[in-house]
Specification:
Rossmann fold, seven-stranded mixed sheet, about 30% helix, globular
Length: about 210
Amino acid sequence: MVHERKVYKVLVVVDVQNDFITGTLAVPHAARAVEKIVELLKTDPFPYDRIYLSQDQHPPQTKHFDKWPVHCVAGTWGADFPPELSQALVRHGLKVHYVRKGNRKDEDGYSAAFGMTGLEAGEEVQLWEDMRLTCYNLCHEVSGFEVDVVGLATDFCVLETAIDLRTTLKTDYTEPILLPEDFETTVQILPDLVAGIDPKKSEAVITLFGKKS
């Protein structure tokens, strides 16, 4: 009997934070996207094997604020996750891998792929590194990685995250990790679970990266 390897499914939730919903840099239609994300998190059985939750944690002074209103400053209400998101995670007992980004004065920190995760385990690595290591550890048990990206905002942090994950998971970025030839990785954006700032750019992003139903 041949054992059929399943696809390992990963959900990346990008920057669902108060300031992007109703705060200083509120994204149009963010509340609607967040509602759908919460619905997904409440799905039983939960369709994902691993979940990452990214969070902007900007310092009070950063070059990033030369381009944008002050937002998501570490330790403030604006940087917090909305209660409905936190409650959904707790209620369903989901193990979450938190990703902090944008915490340096000299960076914008758009992409969650280069954010740091693993603080709760005592050893931080960049998100893409954590994913690649997981790929390596599971490559003989699963047939591939399917990464779904949701969150805010479509045309900035969601886009940059999707681009960087596609690049780092599909190529030998820095030190190569050898995977089986038939091991496939896909990175897609869920169109109904994102909201963007510029409608035209956001539509173009969905055309390029949106998951086909």
